Amino acid sequence: MEAGGFEPLAAPFLPPDVEAWRKAAAKAAGEGGLGRLVRHTLDRIAVDPLYAPPLGNAQPVAAPAGGWPSGWEVAQPHRHPDPATANRQIREDLGNGATAAIVRLDRALARGGEVPDGVLAYDRDAFARLLDGLAPEQVVLEAGARALNVADALAGEAARVAADPIGAVLEGAPVDPEDELARLLAAMPASPRLFLVADGRPWHAAGASEAQELAATLATWLFCLRALEARGFTVEEAADRIELVLAVDDDLFLSLAKLRAARLVAERILEASGVADAAARVRIRAETGQRMLARLDPWVNILRTTVAAFAAVAGGAEAVTVVPFDRPLQEPSPLARRIARNVQLILREEAGLGRVRDPAAGSWYVGHLTRSLAETAFEGTRRIEEEGGILAALRSGRPQAEVATTRGERERLLAGRALELTGVSAFPTLEERAPPAPEPVDLEPALTAARAALANAGSRAVESGIAPLPRIRLAEPFERLRERADAAARRRGARPSIPVVGLGRPAELHDLSTWVENLLAVGGIGALRLRAEGDPIATARGAPAAVLCVGASAAERAAEQVAALRGAGVKRIWVAGTAPASIDEADRLAPGLDVLAFHDTLHRLLGIGGEGERG
Amino acid sequence: MRSRIPSLHAIDLAARAPGPGAGDASEPFLTPEGIALARRYGPDDVAGLDFLATLPGLPPYLRGPYPTMYTTQPWTIRQYAGFSTAEESNAFYKRNLAQGQRGLSIAFDLATHRGYDSDHPRVVADVGMAGVAIDSILDMRILFDGIPLEQMNTSMTINATAAWLLALYVAVAERQGADRKKLAGTTQNDIVKEYLARGTYIFPPGPSLRLTTDLITFTAREMPRWNPINVCSYHLQEAGATPVQEIAYALATAIAVLDAVKASGRVRPEELPEVVGRISFFVNAGIRFVTEMCKMRAFTNLWDRICRERYGVLDPKHRLFRYGVQVNSLGLTEQQPENNVYRILLEALGVTLSKRARCRALQLPAWNEALGLPRPWDQQWSLRLQQILAYETDLLEFDDLFDGSPVIEAKVRELEEAAMEELGRVESMGGAMAAVESGYMKARLVESNTKRVAAIASGALPVVGVNCFTESEPSPLTAGEGGFLAVDPRAEAEQIARLEAHRARRDAKAVAAALAALREAAQEGRNILPPSIDCARAGVTTGEWAQVLREVFGEYRAPTGVGAVAGVGSDLLAPVRARVEEASRRLGRRLKILVGKPGLDGHSNGAEQIAVAARDSGMEVVYDGIRLTPARIATTALEEGVHLVGLSILSGSHEPLVREVLERMRKLGIGEVPVVVGGIVPPEDAKRLLAMGVARVYTPKDYRVDQIMADIVELVLSARRKAA
């Protein structure tokens, strides 16, 4: 269709009355006015409630040029410790729609650990079993700091090998990253399947903000680029040997914009370095972040990864990895791997996500987020450069400390439920349904072989001088609460419960009591629903704690009811709903309360151990 | 060698980014609509789109109807909750409308039928149970939101409050800009069968008939496309009516209504044929399908005669006996429910075989209705039966198959004569309304039903799978847990919250004025519809509307019919009678039971049959009719000193109602008096009732009243032993 060939659709209504909109919007916003609707990301990026040309916040934004291949790589993650089992699972995935396998090799045993955190492949025999019958282009071995040994073992032939000394050190690997990198660079000219990874996942897993993850990852990428160039690679060749890996999560627009921002910055740097076809030389793999996965109500993880996968594809990743939903609980079951594959196949074949490149281009909102993230991240990268590059910065510990601050902020948001985790901190279910367990595999032979190979090789542990990053999952504090309560329920044969007394008309109490019931369930505590009209005192007598739900029509009777409960020996009484002024602030339950602190108190009252008893 | 990579300080991020990457040679995607998708879109593609500069909440609303959309108010998260709320029903109508269906069929909950608001203490647990709850014009507006009423044909199953619901309908339609002259549909508006069978009446027969007449005369003038009344013989058969009684009482009802219309003087003589022609009927088709077919031919003949002779209708078109059918669900059995499929088929034949007396509309129950609320699949199975009958068979290719058949004609004549005789008897008592007030019709129905129940119990009336051929292979069809639809209990709380909000928002002065005008019209005998429409517009609630009329007309309790029946089926009860005598001797006084029907559900057959059988067995029986509150039942049990309480509930609200009766009895100190429950109770619910403390649960499969009576004696004696 020709530009300008459109029928005027809105002409009779133009120009839009901006003042009328502002007035109506301010009225809808209520107290605090329009300003209340402006939200901020953890990077302090302001997000307006609406982007529109008449409001002056709709800017045309340069979009990255590369990305959005017509068919992205469906890269399935693998990490089963037994090499033969891993091989069987890889074949099954590749035969059912996956186009690549991302195989994490174990590093835990090399560090002296007991529990493997990847495939136990330490000798030629193990690699042979792992890679039996697989095409080299379809398999990527994530070897961390072991990449050189692995490349040696394969003679550079049987698979692609991803080397990531910096990421490995951030995980706690006892190696000197500089030394490791130097040896890798020396080996790379002769090993065409060996490549470097600039990995954002450790940052994401540590709770970083989007710009923090981007700045560290781009600085790592730039560090590798410079190092390769210094070894005699052209910038073009260097760029082709580095892959950016970024995490995507269930914050759809931030994840989408994060990928676009990464590409925008990397393309710009290559272009400024005189690379003619910069767009073709930035490659991004996106993986659904493990930070967002929960052990509680794990089925919701399927929905989280679906949102994240959408963000990855719409954000233009060349390869997308969906982590199976049961990963926080177990080695993924066939069902979980199947769903992880099918999420991508549905996005591709049924949702048609690959039909148009950069489908979010032109959205003023996505443009605003992309530009803001790119600018903030670019500033962060510059700062790391000023500090002497990523390794120097990491040795100083400054980026790790900043991420720790952000992590603390996240934890506060989670505790007050400004950030809700469905099925965990909001709308939990006390009738958990566990996903099917995978078939057990005897790991003893693989473990024995790995230990023998490691003993032969001899280990050379070095202090890296870099503080590693913690790996968190957002649901963990809530999972600890539930574990405690569930353990008590198993011991006592019944779930610990407290009386929830309703005072008021049923219609005004319905939502309130359900809210309280859900709040209690977050900590694994049951609710004994009672009505003030019945004889709640008889049931509540001697209970360690109780909640009184007060409807607006019964506010003046609240104090009297509290006194009655107290008289019946109830130690602690919280009041939800319309509480009279006489009720102490600390005894009120209202949206925004610190759920973790509340449950610590409640658990102590119920004798199921407070924070102090843990560990 | 100097590095080509500059310092980041030398890079301006905002500089123009590189041009598009390597070209993509892939073919453009063609959508099924034939739209070619380019591989990439850019600024040129939106140049000239003037609506990009529009704002939400302002015309032309291309960016959404509200100024801030979800940033201030998240969308509504709603899940399927049966059709208990106006929203659910509305969504259902819209789906049907989208498929081209123009017919709406609305069932109301018992509170709406009985003229109570959803927060009235009497309606606890019944709100939204058997249909949609309508408290005010607000609910009606939600119910029909986005439905162009002028183009619809709406059937409302409503009786005692029919005038009010029609008023709400007119008010909502006119708000949509509809012309009331174009509104098409039906109100059931048959109060007689409410007194006799279904129980959702409010006012005494006289005022009720006046409301019926008001509606008919109003629509005759104002809404010419409306069918103001649908005379129901259906419920009479459900209550036990024989074919003769069904014909006679339905015709008596129609005559009572038409006579009242004539007497009102509001319809000119030349308009009467039109009014007569607007009357339609709703009949029942039982398993004795040849007789049922003859019944329909008799109905057709008699109605034609009455129209001609009594009302002088000359145009044969206006004398047509127009009727819809729902086949008999009383005869459906809980035992071997698969047999019901055959029963339904045969019953359908009864009303379709004869072209001259064929129904206009046929509604079939689901095979498993005796077990619980049917699922969509069960209903679909019944629909298929009709489709096969209509499209596969050759039935519709023939003219009337029975004209001139001596056997059929003889049977039809026999039915006509007997029906005319019974109709004459009712007429001689002063017509249908008088026969309601005297309890005559009710007593005849209870008597017929008692005979039927006794005949089944004795085996004289064979029911396959129930009292004969009862051996059965295990059925693969019978559903376990989850086999039936459940109603969401949250619906009630939401409905009450909405009602409270509505009351707070409306203009109290306008409400008071509208109610005062309604009261005047009711007192002065003016048509109730115009002030009711004003009430609807002012935001008056269903409860307020009915309360004003209760104050003017009074409230009514119909005769139970139980007292007038005696000694039917007594052979069967002879052995029980001896045991009752023995038990009474041991108790030191006559064994006494209370039969109660808590809640708003008015289907009283079960309660009546138990009351009659208990009395026939020699027990003293307290039965005060339908719709007692749990509190009243418990108090009566205490005051009357009964040995056992029997509760009958068919509305599905058994759990909360029974729990409340039990609690109240415990509080009054008579917790040890055994309580038995009868009704349509799915097995899982029965387990819960027993756990609650109910002594026995009886369902339609317990057809042996003599055994139930023997049970009662045993329960009373064992309760006494425990107490001693």
Task: Tell me what the structure shows.
- The complex is a heterodimer of chains A (615) and B (724).
- By secondary structure, chain A is an alpha/beta fold.
- Chain A contains 21 helices and 15 strands.
- In chain A, strands 3-4-5-6-7-8-9-10 form an 8-stranded parallel β-barrel, surrounded by 6 helices.
- In chain A, helix 10 (252-272) links the parallel strand 8 and strand 9 (284-288).
- In chain A, helix 17 packs parallel to helix 21 (595-605).
- The model of chain A is unreliable at 610-615 (pLDDT under 50).
- Chain B is α/β, with parallel strands linked by helices and 724 residues long.
- In chain B, 47% of the residues lie in helices and 8% in strands.
- Chain B is built from 26 helices and 15 strands.
- In chain B, helix 5 packs across helix 19, helix 21 runs parallel beside helix 26 and helix 23 (630-640) crosses helix 24 (654-667).
- Chain B is globular.
- The interface between A and B is large, with 77 and 63 residues.
- Helix coverage percent of chain B: 40-55%
The first-to-last residue Cα distance of chain A is 67 Å
Largest sheet of chain B: 5 strands, parallel
Approximate shape of chain A: globular
What share of the residues of chain A does DSSP label as strand, in percent?
Answer: 5-15%
Could you give the count of β-strands of chain A? 15
Question: Could you tell me which chain pair has the largest interface and how many residues each side has?
Answer: A-B, 77 and 63 residues
Extract low-pLDDT stretches of chain B.
76-82, 479-486
Task: Indicate the radius of gyration of chain B in whole angstroms.
Answer: 31 Å
**Biggest β-sheet description of chain A:** 8 strands, parallel, barrel
| Total helical elements of chain A | 21
The class by helix and strand makeup of chain A works out as: alpha/beta
Overall geometry of chain B comes to globular
How widely separated are the two ends of chain B? 111 Å
Task: Kindly name the structural category of chain B.
Answer: alpha/beta
- Give the integer mean of the pLDDT values of chain A: 91
- Biggest sheet: strand arrangement of chain B: 12-11-13-14-15
How would you write the strand order of the largest sheet of chain A? 3-4-5-6-7-8-9-10
Strand percentage of chain B lies at 5-15%
Instruction: Return the average pLDDT of chain B rounded to an integer.
Output: 85
